[in-house]
Amino acid sequence: MADSRTNGFPSDIHREHGPHHHRISFPTMHFGRSSKETGSSAPATLDWQLESPPLVMYGDPQTSSGALLSGQLFLGIKEDSLEIETLLATLSIRVTQKRPFANHCADCTNQLTELKRWELIQHPLVMAKGEHSFPFSVLLEGHLPSSMDSPLVSISYQFKAEAIPRVNLGPPSPIVLEKTLDVRRSLPVSETPHHSVRVFPPTNIKASAHYPHVIHPIGNYTLALRLDGIAKLNAKVNTVEYWKLKKLTWKLEETIKTIAPACERHSPKLNEAAGQQQSKKGVIRSESRIIGEKTLFSGWKSNYTSATDSMVELELDYSLAKNAKYACDSKSRDGTEVTHQLIVEMVVSQEWAPVNKPSLVTHTGVGRILRMHFGTILTERAGIGISWDNEAPPIYQDVPPSPPAYTQETVFTTENSIAGIIEPLGCAQGHGASRSSNDSVAASQPGTNY
């Protein structure tokens, strides 16, 4: 039978391409299990719940106090009793180099750094059926980078919990929970806009700009621009030369710089005979991309009445492009840095006209490109959140004094009205009358309690 099956197997394959198209099926073979089957057969489950606010670091890496992470890890036992050997949780930061030092090298591509480790169950423990909670907390220091995904590097924070149950038959299969945390950074916003002045020699054009230094991924922002010195009087030929704005283009450019480190295998060794440690090296990667741009051919106000009063004014609205992929400003200790700048390019052409007849304009054919760069910080919005150290409850010395206590009790009956108890304004004898009436009522009804 074994020989006949072996000899018939190739013929079945050839028959599949024939006119009948017979197909081979293996009804008794299974190539793995689905996730539902694996989860249902596990003797326990792992889940978590975060109790801290969103992880936002307020301020720059030098002054930020970090972000506080706290939550609970839930271990659900399905059986009546189950012995858990260990329960371990870790928080790590993973850096993935998309252009690594050495291609096709896993160690050069991925760098995993453990930030915190919780040994929730260190010794074997028999646990009853039900859900068991384990609290955890950690302070993410302010110098750590925020989560990002760029063409050069990807930074993510990974939380992993692993429980190993003890089983009688076969090796124990660990129960794993993996989650990804989103860590952001919010930089303070200046109340007053920045002011920049630029002169473009050899011309007399002077550009004055007011713009916000800090912007957010969502929202529109305005740059107020004014051009002066666009007209010049030529007294020899009695003409006025103008520089007229024909085209304006703005771009939001993002620049990413990172150092792709080399692993131990690809890093060179220096002075091994002297016993020195292996030196680390890396290669600098840099890339720029446009996350928003627009070209305008009109929309500004110009005045060419005279050579001294000529000017061009405009308010430029700019923002990130819709569905643009971006990374907020960041600078970490490993060399990763993300910066942004607003680029404004203006195309001006030279024209001249007689002083007495300014409407007779003649084009000279001379043009220039005026380019300006404005440093811009792209960061997340702070919202209504504040840093975790400012949310601390007040200490005992900061608690204000409590209101005064009421030592005198007043008893109300149907015989006494509110007018007889409250002292009238400007009357000094009402207080004694009300006190005597209250005492008489209390003496006549000793058993009444209100």
Name the descriptors.
single chain, 450 residues, mainly beta, Immunoglobulin-like, 3 domains, 7-stranded antiparallel beta sheet, 5 helices, 21 strands, 46% strand, disordered N terminus, disordered C terminus
Write the layout of secondary structure elements.
Layout: H1 2-16, H2 35-41, E1 44-50, E2 56-58, E3 67-97, H3 106-109, E4 110-121, E5 125-140, E6 148-149, E7 153-165, E8 175-181, E9 184-186, E10 194-200, E11 205-211, E12 214-215, E13 221-228, E14 231-234, E15 239-261, E16 282-296, E17 301-303, E18 311-318, E19 330-331, E20 337-354, E21 362-378, H4 418-421, H5 430-444
Parallel strand pairs: 2-9, 12-21
Antiparallel strand pairs: 1-3, 3-4, 3-5, 3-7, 6-7, 7-8, 10-11, 11-13, 13-18, 14-15, 15-16, 15-20, 17-18, 19-20, 20-21
